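Reminder: ligand-aware prediction takes two inputs, not one.
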Amino acid sequence: MTTAAACTLSKQDVLRFHEEGYLGPYALCTPAEMAAFRERIEREVLTKDGPNPRSREHCRHLDCRLIYDLVTHPAIIERMTALFGPDIVIWSSNFWTKQPGGGEIPWHQDFNYWPLNPHLNLSAWMAIDACTEENSCVRIIPGSHKKILQHVKATEGMAFSEMAQMQGIDVNKAVRMVLQPGEFFFFNERTLHQSNKNVSNKRRMGLAARLTLPFVKLNQEGPPLFPGHNAILVHGEDRFGINRYQDPPVA
Ligand SMILES: O=C(O)CCC(=O)C(=O)O
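Here is what comes back for the chain with 2-oxoglutaric acid:
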């Protein structure tokens, strides 16, 4: 895998992340490189069971070196160190595959669903397929991370069971994350995001890396994690020892 050169963030970028709750897009690899990874993902990864018995699309960085290398690529981790310092843990990853006709994912803040204490996460969402408005690119609302919203039962037909209560939120401010294969963006655990129904005849596949810090306690046994789940220290040191770890998968 190619190594991205000089993946740092300026002080302005860091301040913008605090103000807007997202950054990017950035390039992790070229569309041609991602096309080769996509072919391997379809052939070597998603055809086999992974560590989570409930989903082949979850936490494949634990058993596939290709996925580990994508979700811990220097283009992601070097920028994350500029935001959160040197000690970084990957605790989850997820493919987000929406076939043509695939349903809307409602507006939500990820912290609502997650086993993190305290809630602190950086997501890097990368495009495996090209993500356009028609095939339902992710949309985010800048600055929405400053408010914690109540989540309620989702409307019938949504891909999630819970959605954020959106009173007082201006959805006209939403930014569309239109991405070339190999591009990604960052957002935090409170940034409101959503994607519409896929109205195209093209699949939309993304891969989200979920990264946190070693002082965050994970509930590793229950959903959305699973018995035998492990975190992996990807950069720096763990000075706390409160979570269960494994080594990266072998190449
Ligand atoms: O892929 C999507 O449409 C939604 C992604 C999402 O909710 C997430 O990455 O947290």
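Residues 11-235 form a domain with the Jelly Rolls fold (CATH 2.60.120.620). The first strand starts at residue 22 and ends at 27. We will return to this case in the review session.
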